Amino acid sequence: xxxxxxxxxxxxxxxxxxxxxxxxxxxxxxxxxxxxxxxxxxxxxxxxxxxxxxxxxxxxxxxxxxxxxxxxxxxxxxxxxxxxxxxxxxxxxxxxxxxxxxxxxxxxxxxxxxxxxxxxxxxxxxxxxxxxxxxxxxxxxxxxxxxxxxxxxxxxxxxxxxxxxxxxxxxxxxxxxxxxxxxxxxxxxxxxxxxxxxxxxxxxxxxxxxxxxxxxxxxxxxxxxxxxxxxxxxxxxxxxxxxxxxxxxxxxxxxxxxxxxxxxxxxxxxxxxxxxxxxxxxxxxxxxxxxxxxxxxxxxxxxxxxxxxxxxxxxxxxxxxxxxxxxxxxxxxxxxxxxxxxxxxxxxxxxxxxxxxxxxxxxxxxxxxxxxxxxxxxxxxxxxxxxxxxxxxxxxxxxxxxxxxxxxxxxxxxxxxxxxxxxxxxxxxxxxxxxxxxxxxxxxxxxxxxxxxxxxxxxxxxxxxxxxxxxxxxxxxxxxxxxxxxxxxxxxxxxxxxxxxxxxxxxxxxxxxxxxxxxxxxxxxxxxxxxxxxxxxxxxxxxxxxxxxxxxxxxxxxxxxx
Length: 562
Known about the structure:
Elements: H1 4-11, E1 16-20, E2 26-28, H2 35-46, H3 54-74, H4 82-91, H5 98-112, E3 113-115, H6 117-123, E4 128-132, H7 138-147, E5 155-158, H8 159-162, H9 171-179, E6 186-190, H10 193-202, E7 206-209, H11 220-223, H12 227-239, H13 249-266, E8 270-274, H14 279-292, E9 297-301, H15 305-309, H16 316-327, E10 336-339, E11 342-343, H17 346-354, E12 359-366, E13 380-385, H18 391-398, H19 402-407, E14 415-421, E15 424-429, H20 434-458, H21 467-470, H22 475-479, H23 483-490, E16 495-496, E17 503-504, H24 512-517, H25 519-528, H26 532-539, H27 549-558
Parallel strand pairs: 1-4, 1-6, 4-5, 6-7, 8-9, 8-10, 10-12, 11-12, 12-13
Antiparallel strand pairs: 2-3, 14-15, 16-17
């Protein structure tokens, strides 16, 4: 049963109401209770209370509860207590301070839990006793309910307090004794058909069921990812929000964390995010640094190949570019980090020539031809592939290099150059296509919303991710996208035209008759497309299955088409 007024009406006429807590009065913004242990592990590691990784702590925490539950049942008790679990973990050298660590778990629960609005509204102004099968003491659960917005004199009876559970049926006599009401005057709200339904009715209470959130389990492929990605997928299974941003969030967050790690290792106090590619990581980095309070300044730098690479030495354009860099503090001494999507490193080379000094580039990837004096492994850091290594990963990304260029775009057009206005050097931006700008705004909004949700849950306790994890969400688009995704992305004219003022879609559709008449031309078109798998999916008729570009090209050659 759901809906505030309907639930409230069911409660009328009873002297007292009892209410289950988890998945009834409050819900978690993660799909599984054990996912909270990843959050706890991350916070414990950040606080120096454990040496385990968040994923290792999750496994240890689950195992410790199982051991303590077995011990409790051997004593004839239905529930272990959180203090016992954390004392066991400390005895096993997993923790340094059991009491402090247990409080960290409560803080993690507080960060992930929110009120269920219809239940909260129905309980307002009523005599309520919250009852919960939980390892938490009732006083802690009362804290949790208050943090979720429940008010008044919050009374909680926990199975950790009574050592008797709703599931076993032994808690309900204690509930009635606490209320001082006969069973027929009490109604119980809950989501579990056995604990909150059958067992409550067996004790004589009336019951009303509320719908519980039941979410898909963690898939094996997700479980193999780094823990921040597992948390993001857990959060998505609860929130259920869709949009193109879901292909970009992991890469955007992971890359930003890698950039910040590079700045810390280098001792750099300035990070310059190059327009347009750096806008989204700049926004994420700005939020992280505001939380950590580190003395690292993230700055946007309006540069482009056209603005700083193309101008001839000694030209007016080159002079304006140099003056702009001086004005923005880029020429100041000290280590600096620049951020660009990458591929050839030409912008870093030009910036190094215009403003000498300690400069490191942070990229998604660099091609083999990027390697040259000044652009070396010592002066660069790549999140996905570095100067062509590893080759398979580079191949996957470059088969659809336009996709990261879309996701790491900006809410403005390309930088065409500079001009002097009111005593300052200001960048000149190309006109933008409204559809591209609107699409980017939606992508950025979704990515930042996912980041902020996880950042609030983690309280900033992030860790870096592997290249495979960062690329996991984007990989389906790079390899075997579905037709719907191809249509959605190709509806966005985001590829800059030759003069940087026009915009075209990623895939230029080729008529079927032209493909049949000129198969070799079709294969070359697919090869040269900035999103090869998208081209293949767009041109393969249903019901032919999706396939990546290398498989498509191989089969085409086998039948003599190219």
